[in-house]
Specification:
Elements lengths: L2 H4 L17 E5 L6 H6 L4 E5 L7 E4 L2 E6 L1 H6 L3 H9 L5 E7 L5 H14 L3 E5 L2 H16 L13 H12 L6 H11 L2 H6 L2 H8 L1 H12 L7
Parallel strand pairs: 1-2, 4-5, 5-6
Antiparallel strand pairs: 1-3, 3-4
Length: 224
């Protein structure tokens, strides 16, 4: 990789002043030749970097992605240290892409609560590397979409809003419509967590409100 490009890309999550070139997905070199790489390069330009710290990918300059594989979930909780380190970088939006499969279902709930409630980050469940590649490629392409009136453009990319909606929909029994209503009303998952049952009930009804409140406030425990 050229020195000019290296100066554009953050070398580690704690060096967050660089810029990712438009239309590019910056990837940790360990993903070269993987199924993810093969699927992603068909949609966007993939550029590899030797040292991205704890991050696996940078779809935009402001977003760092950590990939938690099926084997990562089954093996233990070591990946949590990576996520906690990324969370400390205020200028980067942390996103966790996790392989949610029949083998990892029993571990996913604890990871979801840790990521959303303790770290305040976004979690996106996918079934395999090909699906993950499509998801990150859309994040890259969304960043390039033209906006007729730049004064009306939101600072955060559309993919972040979609990510929050997907995260909310992973709450059992909460569908897309109710999840969207909650986000529209309260603005963030943190605010939803802090809302009372009565406040939630005004949006999605008492039974659903109690279910959501119980899910979001149940203490995270480890199955390891």
């Amino acid at each position: 990789m050229s020195e000019d490009f290296q100066s554009q890309v953050p070398a580690t999550p704690v060096h967050d002043g660089g810029r990712v070139p438009p239309g590019c997905l910056v990837s940790n070199r360990r993903w070269k030749g993987s199924q993810f790489h093969k699927a992603a390069r068909a949609q966007v330009q993939v550029i590899f970097e030797d040292d991205l710290g704890v991050a696996d990918f940078y779809p935009t300059s402001e977003m760092a992605v950590v990939y938690v594989s099926e084997s990562d979930l089954v093996a233990g909780t070591a990946y949590r240290r990576k996520l906690a380190k990324l969370r400390k970088v205020e200028k980067l939006k942390g996103v966790v892409v996790v392989e949610k499969t029949p083998m990892t279902d029993q571990y996913y709930l604890d990871l979801q609560k840790f990521v959303v409630l303790e770290l305040g980050m976004v979690i996106l469940p996918i079934s395999n590397q090909t699906e993950a590649a499509g998801l990150l490629a859309r994040m890259v392409l969304d960043e390039q979409k033209p906006h007729p009136n730049p004064f009306l453009r939101r600072r955060k990319t559309q993919s972040i809003d979609s990510s929050l909606l997907v995260t909310m929909q992973t709450i059992p029994k909460l569908g897309a419509v109710k999840a969207k209503r909650l986000l529209q009303k309260f603005g963030s998952i943190k605010n939803i967590t802090e809302a009372s049952v009565e406040e939630l009930a005004s949006v999605i009804g008492t039974a659903n409100a109690r279910h959501v409140k119980n899910f979001l406030t149940t203490k995270v425990t480890s199955k390891r």
